[in-house]
Design goal:
Layout: H1 4-8, H2 10-21, E1 30-33, E2 39-43, H3 47-60, E3 68-73, E4 77-81, E5 84-87, H4 93-104, E6 108-113, E7 125-128, H5 132-142, E8 148-151, E9 158-160, E10 179-181, H6 185-192, E11 198-205, H7 209-219, E12 224-229, E13 241-242, E14 244-248, E15 253-255, E16 259-260, H8 261-276
Parallel strand pairs: 3-6, 3-8, 6-7, 8-11, 11-12
Antiparallel strand pairs: 1-2, 4-5, 9-10, 12-14, 13-16, 14-15
Helix pairs in contact: 4-8
Bound molecules: ligand PMT.
Amino acid sequence: AMNVHMYRHWTVQENIRRLKDRGVEFIDPVEGLLACGYEGQGKLADPADIVEKIQSLLVKARDWSGRTVLVTAGPTREPLDPVRFFSNRSSGKMGYAIAEAAQRRGARVLLITGPTHLRPPAGVEVTAVETAEQMYEAVMSRMEEVDVIIKAAAVADYTAVQVAEQKIKKSSDQLTVQLRRTPDILAEVGRRRRPGQCVVGFAAETEQVDRYAQDKLVRKGADFIVANDVSRSDIGFDADNNRVSVFGKDGFVETWPLMSKRQVADKLLDLVLHQFFKKGQE
Ligand code: PMT
């Protein structure tokens, strides 16, 4: 709590954002008459609200203990020659946020990640891969031991039929490259999953987001699909925030307002816990 102008100052807001990014929880000041005589946001939150928030954080603290979560994150890279590759846009932020939240809430977490600039969350078991084929092998080799698989990675759908051994020279104005499909990891997970295992996919779409996401839910045999509209620059790829809709195979649909990827991660974990594992309803 503080003076409204101090609170709104960009340096304070920037510091708050940084701390939130590191996982610090805030109970924001509320609007009202401030001790300094100003009116605005800066007033200490109601003590009852502070207690409620602390209680909810403590209850949530270890609600994933005893479960193992596999998360894929980041892009894959498909080599063309020793110096070039095809890739997908993905910073890894969404997947890393899920891995961090699951770990913080007590789960054992396996993070299978394509190349990113992010530091993996502490306490998470990391497998670094480059190509879709490597991600496929890594996921298949670990999927038996996990309770939930969350596929936030942006896997390249195509890879070069032939990878040149030496750097391709610029000998012509045009270059034709033949591509072949990569294995669809999510669809294979959907086929091989054992009863009681939860499968969550993401759908990155630029148009008809809900329609294509619902189609993927069925085609890939997932329990939930989280749909993001990646045509917008403020959400989806690279951004710190996301605005998603979640579709469940039993007809469940929810659209969440714009929020940080950390918040999306926590809400998604809440959803899986309560909708799939029915925790809290036994
Ligand atoms: O990493 P960020 O910058 O934070 O951005 C987050 C994100 C937008 C990358 C992420 O939220 C997201 O949407 N990830 C999925 C991207 C994607 O590949 O979407 P898709 O619609 O092409 O694939 C659908 C699902 O199938 C995904 O779960 C994907 O992991 C999976 N897939 C796709 C192709 C393939 N060969 N194997 C797969 O498993």
